[in-house]
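Reviewer 2 asked us to include a model.

Predict the structure of this chain.
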Amino acid sequence: MTLLQSFYFACISVSPVLAILLLGMWLKKANVVNSEFIRGGNQIVFNIALPCLLFINVATNPLQKNLDTTLVIYAAIATLLSVLFLVVIARFTAPKSQRGVFVQCSFRGNMAIIGLALAVSYLGEEIIPVVATYLAFITILYNVLSIMVLTTFNRSMLVTILKNPLILGIVAGLIVSLLGISLPKFVTQPLNYLSQLTLPLALLCIGASLDWHSAKSNTRVTAIASVLKLAIIPTVVVSGGWYLGLGKEALIVLFLMSGAPTAAAAFVMSKQLTDHGDLASEIITFSTLLSPLTITIGLMILGEV
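Predicted model (structure tokens):
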């Protein structure tokens, strides 16, 4: 594959996701959708549609076939090391009160929506079970680390993690898969219908939530966090995976998961646990708007590997 072909393939993989994000922005600007629609849509995605998608893809596919143990272990170690690195960097780049938010927003990517959407667009729908098993483990780690960097860990926070709908969907899917339970069609068909809502509705809501003008109150911290999230961390993580001999598909999954823009959940947790939800919102906006460029460049480079 030539460099030009790699660039073209990367562009056509990113463009469907970008198109839905831009459509969401236009619908909000044209007053076709409002804040109530966005709030309701997000609740449907995170409480119903996305848990169904993760459950059905984990439950109906053999775990042994789709679990890339090396990839998951490496991703977990890389995430832990990234957080330690960010804790050090935060001491020099963010005010003390903002450091927890800075760290969380710099490592917590929108894997389950944008990362998954890009993986499907670039690698095809057959990659969903592989990504779902990846998410099964890394999502739990993300939640634990997010709470640890934002506040003191306690029992109530553990309960919050365990009640997360995404984690419940993943764990239920793992149980069904490990026990070898065959789900009847009258169960799988409605779950498949709900699963198909996930990506288009989530991307529309993300697009409608974005506001370029909001990403200006904490410009320096926002810019540094976004560059770390979109460029520096994924470059280091993927380079390490390449050095260890991970296959091309695994490297692409690793890049799309680690290089996805900051997750919307980072705002929710920052708002609940700190006084700097505005900073999280700005980093989410800036990183999401910048991510099509960085992801296109990354996929183009990986196309040459």
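The chain is about 80% helix and 0% strand. The domain at 3-302 is CATH 1.20.1530.20 (Na+/H+ antiporter like fold). We have added this to the supplementary material.
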